[in-house]
Amino acid sequence: MSSVSFVPFKTYVVGGAVRDMLLGLPVKDRDHVVVGATPGQMQAQGFVPVGKDFPVFLHPETHEEYALARTERKIAPGYTGFAFHAAPEVSLEQDLQRRDLTINAIAIDSDGSLIDPCGGQSDLQKKIFRHVAPAFAEDPVRILRLARFAARFTEFRVAAETLALMQQMVQAGEVDALVPERVWQELARGMMETQPSRMFAVLRDCGALARILPELDALAIDQQVYKQLMSAVDGAARLHHALAIRFAVLLQDVPPGEAAAAAICARLKVPKEVRDLALMAAREQRLIAGAAAMDAAAIVSLLERCDAFRKPARFLDCLTVVQCKYGELGDAGKTHAPLLATALSAAQAVPAGQLAAAVSAQYSDQLSTRIPQAIQAARIAAVAQALQ
Ligand code: CTP
């Protein structure tokens, strides 16, 4: 730090790092606010500018982020419609006032003293998500952020006035202005938290779920179905499953199956590998759950449809998705995963290359049908034997 120790401005650690430290959690990224500096002074001290929209710099040695204290004002709908004002005279308190939640609006100075003008410590103790100011409503991403925090900080609840504000925001159409990439980013992060069902509960309570995932919201008409789905999603989180598995579990029950899942994935611009698993699970879940009643030919055709010979790991993930759902329902489907995994190993062990060579040696015509037929027949025989 020697090169910047004489800086004429003050810096504070703010946001999630302070919140997590006060909660006794490990701190990942530390964000800093700089008060009393101009961009020119920052660069003269060796800070590297990185901000596209805001004046943000990287520390020359630690590479941590330093943002000039700023105020923000909404000038257009959507999450990019902001005018910001960053100047040496903007105070730390002003910068804290523009933040989303009181628990995210606490600062620590270089002596370790806390600056907490919004009551963040008290809300941390009371375990409450409370908005700092009415300007919360200027950024609809904050609804998704709060919902995602609810999935992480599972003992926290939303302050009544904050929920009321979020409901107003949804009614005013704020959530509809969000770009799909941003919605997906926040949903994906929330799905990876400890208890994703809490994110969906907050989104439902404020009405946002009906805007961003109306298909899921509609499922809640049947409380029993919705509850089972949410516990399946939480179960997948408890087992630390990957995002693709958790998301596929979420979409499994959305009627009418694959087409609905495809529509959701297209609307939210869900990444391909996440989408592919979700669609496969939506399409095949019933068949997979009833695998005990399938014969070897039906199993091999399932494996082919799922491209399981080229992508075995994805097929096994699909079994896990179905397991997460049926695991919640008690005994049903308990045996399908081991059975199909055994079938896959047996079918994989068929030496397809050798068979192709043998068919080519024996016949000179119609190889493009003869070879796949021979491989398929051998796989069916192998599966039948393995499942005896
Ligand atoms: N912030 C905000 N409104 C937003 C995004 C961020 O007020 N829409 C403020 C909050 O004070 C937040 C800080 O910027 O604490 C840093 O944001 P970010 O790093 O995105 O989130 P964290 O709160 O650090 O949370 P996480 O642990 O998920 O990174």
Q: Which features would summarize this protein structure in a list?
A:
388 residues; alpha+beta; Beta Polymerase, domain 2; 7-stranded mixed β-sheet; two-stranded antiparallel ribbon; 11 strands; elongated; disordered N terminus; binds cytidine-5'-triphosphate
What does it look like?
The chain has 388 residues and is of the alpha+beta class. It has a domain of 123 residues: Beta Polymerase, domain 2. The chain contains 19 helices and eleven strands. The strands form three sheets. Strands 3-4-5-2-1-8-9 form a seven-stranded mixed sheet. Strand 4 and strand 5 form a beta hairpin. Helix 11 crosses helix 16. Cytidine-5'-triphosphate binds next to helix 5.
